[in-house]
Design a protein that fits this description.
- The protein has about 110 residues and is mainly alpha-helical.
- It has one domain.
- About 80% of the residues lie in helices and about 5% in strands.
- A two-stranded antiparallel ribbon has the order 1-2.
- It is elongated and about 60 Å long.
């Protein structure tokens, strides 16, 4: 087996792993019961999935191209920084929008009517 076939096997495995994590994150978005748990699935699993896909792309382009491909690592760094910050801001905005009641999270209009 040549070195290219080993690289292709590793790239294929990383693509499958990335696709599985992204699918799990997307299913978490659909299946979770409320906003806060729905936010957790995509923010964690899809970040790992996209990281795996970008690593596969960097490995493939580095072996097939003229040299080391760093574009994917910059994209990975950007996603690793912005995804948790975006999730935190969404959760904080949802928390300010809702009030905690005895029955759980309720809308502010419902809390005034009690």
């Amino acid at each position: 087996m040549s070195t290219i076939s080993w690289v292709e096997a590793v790239v294929a495995a990383l693509v499958v792993i990335g696709a599985v994590f992204t699918l799990i994150g997307s299913l978490g978005l659909l299946r979770m019961p409320d906003f806060f748990t729905r936010l957790h699935g995509p923010s964690k699993a899809t970040t790992i999935g996209i990281g795996s896909l970008l690593l596969a792309s960097a490995l493939f382009m580095s072996c097939r191209g003229g040299g080391l491909s760093l574009h994917e690592f910059l994209i990975s760094l950007f996603i690793a920084i912005t995804s948790p910050v975006g999730s935190h801001l969404l959760a904080k905005a949802a928390r300010h929008r809702r009030l905690r009641g005895a029955e759980g999270w309720v809308e502010p209009d419902q809390a005034r009517n009690r």
